[in-house]
Design brief:
The structure holds two protein chains of two kinds.
Chain A lengths: L3 E7 L2 E7 L5 H8 L18 E4 L2 E4 L12 E3 L12 H8 L9 H14 L5 H7 L11 H19 L1
Parallel strand pairs in A: 1-5
Antiparallel strand pairs in A: 1-2, 3-4, 3-5
Chain B lengths: L3 E5 L2 H10 L3 E4 L5 H6 L7 E5 L7 E4 L2 E5 L4 H5 L8 H5 L4 H6 L2 H4 L8 H8 L3 E5 L6 E4 H9 L5 E8 L7 E7 L7 E8 L11 E5 L6 E2 L1 H7 L6 H9 L15 H16 L4
Parallel strand pairs in B: 1-3, 2-3
Antiparallel strand pairs in B: 4-5, 5-8, 6-7, 6-8, 9-10, 10-11, 11-12
Helix pairs in contact in B: 9-10, 10-11
The chains are: A alpha+beta, B alpha+beta.
């Protein structure tokens, strides 16, 4: 079967890969482009650990056909930090012990970023709804919710500076 | 032979391809088809993508509403004029799934998925179907769902229905054990024009109470001509289980679904859900 060329922007850089026609975006990211940030969890759209942003919208990379991403702008957790400087969400996750085994963390951070990008001042209910598609089996969710709310309090101040 | 991919621009061309090749699978939002690919249930044939922007259009003009089958749940939620459908759109997955899952895909989702189709069933939607090259044909949603269970290969272009006249005419409830996102124990949609005084043309539909979304005809009969008062609600509750064949799955047993259905129907009708 002939491979399909796919080109898109990944975390601000132009990237290209050859994919099998039915490859998911997650497969191309992990196997083709060595971006191991998004994880393969359930492959069903249930766990959310493969969450990425495609043209700013939250999507599940495991259920997204790679070939449909031609020309898109894709953000993964791997691009959240600015060099050695962590994104405020990442810092807040550390400070609030919002990661334990860490397998859900890429999806949680990405879902949280999708929320804060459109709603910098979310309520607790907004946060709960935003991470409703992401499963964590370690933390009981509360530290994650607190971390996202704390990051939201930090972000506007940073944006003003 | 591994899966191939074909991309076409027009809905008509896609319908022609689907009609001619039973090994071609239409890929819409990907939430059902890519899961089958990931789990090895779909390993050969052709995936078909349609890029026609008309497939994703939502038209809200006057009393008639048309939702392109490629429109997502998030697109529904972005339309203030479709507020009466927001509870049904929000019942589908989490935010990422809602950015992907489409109206057309939901019509093919097996129980306990397919909650949006339950809403469309209560709205007496017409499914605009392309069964090959040519123009779409309007198929009543109940007939469409019966055809789906027979495995008929057709392409859904859009769904059309009339906007409920008064606020509160249309109601939707999804019951799940995990909130805010969980699979359906059951879902209920009601369209009860004239509910404040005398109900006419009552439509009540259930999800997860059978292999397909089903009309609750006993409830519809019980409510016809009545007001939505204590007597009307009691009559509806008494008829709630008529004709249901609940599924047993990891979420709930058929026994449990039967036990809780009248309770949730009563709450929805009393607007207490």
């Amino acid at each position: 079967m002939a491979k399909v060329p796919v080109q898109f922007r990944l975390n601000g850089s132009d990237r290209a890969a050859f994919a099998d026609p039915a490859d998911s975006l997650l497969t191309v990211l992990r196997r083709g482009l060595n971006d191991f940030g998004p994880k393969y969890g359930c492959g069903q759209g249930t766990c959310g650990t493969c969450s990425v942003l495609i043209d700013g919208g939250l999507r599940l990379a495991c259920l997204t056909l790679a070939a449909s991403c031609e020309g898109a702008s894709i953000e993964t957790v791997s691009g959240m930090a600015d060099g050695p400087n962590l994104h405020p969400l990442q810092t807040a996750f550390m400070e609030h012990f919002a990661a334990q085994c860490g397998f859900c963390t890429p999806g949680m951070l990405t879902a949280a970023k999708a929320l804060l990008d459109r709603n910098p001042n979310p309520s607790r209910e907004d946060v709960i709804d935003a991470i409703a598609g992401n499963i964590c089996r370690c933390t009981g969710y509360e530290p994650i919710i607190q971390a996202i709310l704390a990051a939201a309090r930090t972000l506007p101040a940073q944006r003003r500076s | 032979m591994p899966l191939a991919l074909r991309v076409v621009q027009s809905l008509s061309e896609a319908a022609g391809i689907l009609a001619a090749d039973s090994r071609t699978t239409l890929l819409s939002g990907g939430t059902l088809v890519m899961r089958d690919v990931n789990e090895g249930r779909l390993t050969d044939g052709t995936l078909l993508r349609v890029t026609d922007p008309a497939w994703q259009q939502i038209q809200v003009s006057g009393t008639r509403i048309e939702l392109g089958a490629g429109a997502t749940m998030a697109a529904i939620l972005a339309q203030r004029e479709l507020g009466f459908l927001h509870a049904a759109a929000r019942a589908v997955g989490g935010p990422a799934i809602r950015n992907m899952a489409t109206i057309g895909g939901n019509l093919f989702a097996a129980a306990p998925y397919g909650d949006f189709a339950v809403a469309l069933l209560a709205l007496d939607a017409q499914v605009m179907v392309l069964a090959g090259y040519g123009s779409p044909r309007a198929v009543p949603i109940e007939e469409f769902l019966a055809g789906r269970s027979r495995g008929e290969a057709r392409l859904v272009a859009s769904v059309q229905f009339n906007r409920p006249v008064a606020p509160g005419d249309f109601r939707f409830l999804k019951v799940s054990r995990v909130k805010p996102k969980g699979l359906s124990v059951l879902s209920i949609a009601t369209h009860l024009p004239g509910h404040a005084s005398r109900i006419g043309q009552a439509r009540v539909a259930y999800g997860a109470m059978g292999p397909l979304p089903v009309r609750a005809r006993g409830v519809e009969r019980a409510l016809e001509g009545k007001a939505l008062d204590a007597n009307g609600i009691a009559a509806a509750r008494a008829a709630a289980l008529e004709g249901v064949q609940p599924v047993t799955d990891a979420i709930a047993s058929d026994w449990y679904r039967r036990e809780v259905l009248p309770v949730h129907l009563g709450r929805l009708l009393a607007n207490q859900s």
